[in-house]
Amino acid sequence: MLDVGQGDAILIRADGHSALIDAGPRDANVEEQLRTLGVEHLDLVVSTHPHADHIGRMAQVLQDFDVGLYVDNGMSHTTKNYANVMEAVKTTEVDYQVAVKGMSFPFGDEAVFTVLFPGSSQISGTRSDINSNSVVLRLDHGASSFLFMGDAEAPTEVALLKANIPAVDVLKVAHHGSGHSSTGAFLAKLHPHSALISCGEGNRYHHPYDEALERLQHVGTLVYRTDRSGNLRAISDGVGVEILEGTIAELDSVVVVPWPEPVAVVDTDPEEPPEPDETTGSPSVDGPKLKRRDFFDAAFERRPHASKAEIRSEWRAYKKAWRLAQKLERKAAKALDNATVEGEPEP
Ligand SMILES: [Zn+2]
Asked: Which residues contact 87 (CB under 8 A, 6 or more apart)?
């Protein structure tokens, strides 16, 4: 996820293939970032919807890079920006298709994009029909999955729920974390372990909304934001996904970084160990936190006939329990802090 300020631009790479979902706002340096990352050819370029924070640099991208296929949601817009993009589609003679649910685009040897939305007829009468008809794409790579929501809103989520959308590992949060998207029911169904939000620092839309962040937290999702971390990178090995944060230069010097491990809470008073949590029934988190690979090894040794999916869901539960334990620790520490400060007003 490229840091483009208030907008979206997501580069996906596999086996030497590249795809781009959206091209940021007009003032973003999308082409420069792509060149820095060594991109020359883009097999697939998607405009999720024709708003300026998604197609700002699209005409330039189509002109500067060798593009295999350009896809959009088929909606026109009255802006000069949109006219320029369609002009670029014409002059570059790029292959162009309107995305419709059910289409799929093989990506490299092991990955595939599938269009989940819009269907053959678009939805109308919503708060923003352009947002609500965003192209929603799923990317599957082995057992790892990603969902790209564009700026889809609640009506889109209802349609996807009706179509029984499956769970996903990594969610590109809809609409920069707006509260009009990421409904509780939708997130409960997706149950993503990580969520990526693209938004500008101190943006005037106040993205992401607190309520969207709370709903993500409620389903135990780890949230990463470009306004806090700059570029975000998710690396899939076909079994799990690792998320890296930081600028391009920092990321390029990184080879492998494990999952952001919950930090074990150091018991500063060993004579008074924390009470075990009776209410959650969570697995023991007293021992050192296992690395993902060790967890998988141990689980397969214990249950050699278990499927990868089963072990992955155990891993998720394990991590969730760790996060919960941390949260409880923090809460307890905070309560202790508050108790010792006399006359401190409640926040
Ligand atoms: Zn947007």
From this structure: 59
* Spatial distance between the Cα atoms of 217 and 256, rounded to a whole number of angstroms: 26
Q: Which amino acid is at 262?
A: P
> Exposed/middle/buried for 251, CB within 10 Å: 0-12, 13-18, 19+?
middle
CATH number of 10-249: 3.60.15.10
Tokens, residue 248: 């391009």
> What does the pLDDT read at residue 325?
66
- Identify the pLDDT of residue 339: 63
Cα of 49 vs centre of ligand 1, distance in Å, is 9
CA 54 to centroid of ligand 1, rounded, Å: 6
104/274 Cα distance (integer angstroms): 51
Write the DSSP symbol of residue 38.
T
CA of 273 to the centre of ligand 1 (A): 48
The domain segmentation of the chain, as residue ranges, is 10-249, 278-347
What pTM does this model have?
A: 0.73
Q: What is the pLDDT of residues 180-207, one digit of tens each?
A: 999 999 999 999 999 999 999 999 999 9
Residues (pLDDT < 50) of the chain are 253-286, 341-347
- The pLDDT of residue 278 is 40
Give, in order, the Cα–Cα distances in Å from 303 to each of 298, 306, 314.
Answer: 9, 6, 12
Measured in Å, residue 298 CA sits from the centre of ligand 1 at 43
For residues 86 and 47, give the distance between their C-alpha atoms in angstroms, rounded to a whole number.
11
